[in-house]
Amino acid sequence: MVASANELIDLILSVDGPEAQRPPGRFEAAQAPDSDDMIDTAELCDFVPFLVFLIYQDASGVISERQVTLRGLVTGPNGHPTLLGYCHVRRARRRFRIDRIREVIDCVTGERYDSPTALIDLLNLDETDTAVKQCRHGLTVLSYLARCDGHYCARERDVVLTYVRQIACDQDVDEDRLNWLLDRICPDAEVAVHSAKMLARGMGETSIRTLLDYAGCLIDADGFHAPEEIAFAQRLNGIRNHYI
Fold first, then answer.
1. Which of 46, 137, 151, 235 has the most beta carbons within 10 angstroms of its beta carbon?
2. CA-to-CA distance for 149 and 157, rounded, in angstroms?
3. Hey, what's the torsion of the CAs at 213, 219, 221, 226, to 10 degrees?
4. pTM
5. What is the pLDDT confidence band of residue 145, given thresholds at 50, 70 and 90?
6. Cβ neighbours of 1 (radius 10 Å)
7. Distance between CA atoms of 198 and 204, rounded to whole angstroms?
8. Distance between alpha carbon 49 and the CA centroid of its chain, in Å?
9. Buried b (16+ CB within 10 A) or exposed e, 121-135
10. Model pLDDT for residues 11-39, shown as the tens digit of each residue
11. Phi and psi for 51 in degrees, rounded to 5?
């Protein structure tokens, strides 16, 4: 039976490597209801889904910890720069005003950034990240597939790297930068499905077939076929059949 997108969204994604350090004895993780200005119903943005850890103070003054997959940066009401993201605490879309972010923590290293934009600036793709830009939708899909069972092993990572090198074979790839970015790409299921549809619509059968081939390699990589991986691969095949 193929899992629905909502069922896949309910999976808790993990990050390979050290977890972000929770500031000791400070705040509970979003026990109070979110303020209305945090609720996000916007369409998905074309944004590489990086994972960050936020200390956030909402419009009511409530401070909480959030693990968030970034989806975009927009200008919100009254001209306030606002992050759009998938909140893994609420398991739903949320928006976070930049001026209300108290700290940003790198979920891989635990490094803390007092400036809300410091880590985000590092995550923004620039002219040297052409390989990631070129294959961002496939990279998003494979990164989700690699993580959806709660594990992201070195062999799975190698499959994702090989995909990038094949798709962006005409680009100069900064391996250190690419590896740094891959550690922090952690899509939620809705973004992964959106990227698969974008790839099928815009790139055609060859691209989606290549993606499915790599999906199969990725599922085989750790020697265990997790039910979550099989369900999502079946969903990818359904998207292919619908759009091609």
1. 137
2. 14
3. -170
4. 0.77
5. very high
6. 7
7. 10
8. 3
9. eebebeeebbbbebb
10. 323 333 333 333 333 334 555 556 555 55
11. -100, 135
